[in-house]
Amino acid sequence: MQTLMDEKVRPALSAREVEVLLAWIVRDSKDDVARSLYISPATVGTHIARVRDKYEAVGRSAKSKAALVARALQDGYITLDEL
């Protein structure tokens, strides 16, 4: 019987979701991310919520910022050099 760890399920994140996720990881606040990407803080929140929902949908919950960093690293969406 295979588990999720044996067959790591990678959610399909859009390029924009990855861009916003990385910006949010390396900045202190959603307001800083919003200013840097010329979007509203609410839009930043929407992208992060969608990323979390996609991880939840594949059974790999990421409820904290640290968990999202770990998941994104595991799945190759970001690298240590980008952090």
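(the above was protein one; protein two follows)
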Amino acid sequence: MELRLLKELVKKGEGEHLEFKLKSNHPEKIVREVVAFANSGGGKLFVGVGDDKTIKGLKDAEEDEYTLTKAIDKFIYPKISYKKERIPVSSDRDVLVLTIPKSIDKPHYVVDNTGNRQAYIRVEDKSIQASREMKEIMRRGRGERDIRFQYGDKEEKLMKLLDEKESVTVDLFAAFAGIPRKIASNTLVVMVLARILEVHPHEMIDKFTMSMAYQSN
């Protein structure tokens, strides 16, 4: 990447596919961003750029690259593919650029030293924890095969609820249909995979709406 392109991207600011980090002294936080990009639509991570779009660069980019590479290898499961490059921004400073493609092996997790793991996804300019439903959608959506399901009473109640509401949550659907939360969750996941519904992840709670493709049929 040329410095000119780097400056153009920085000028646009952080977003769904772009994240800035001034330093690498908290690699565990940077690993979350890497996982979120891999679990979503991919993205670029600039280390040496501030949230205010200041391009300061890193004095020892080689050491920062080593630290981050080690953290990515240690704390991400399953392993991800990504590219690294150093862009000189002055005579003694570089910006480290990590390019993370959308993964076909998602969900990827950040695994801490105790073995606990958490998946992250990218929503606008934030990396948030993935809900149970999002993890299932990622896991079961790896293949391109058609999803089949039986349209029964609970699905009919869901369609009725969506006629009344712009969006539904797992808990709202479970209460309306009088079914256990786990069954409501699985029903929504299957209907997202069948492209009847769309999921809209949020930090607090995911929302589900009718898909545009299904409405146009």
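Reviewer note on protein two: The chain has a mean pLDDT of 93.
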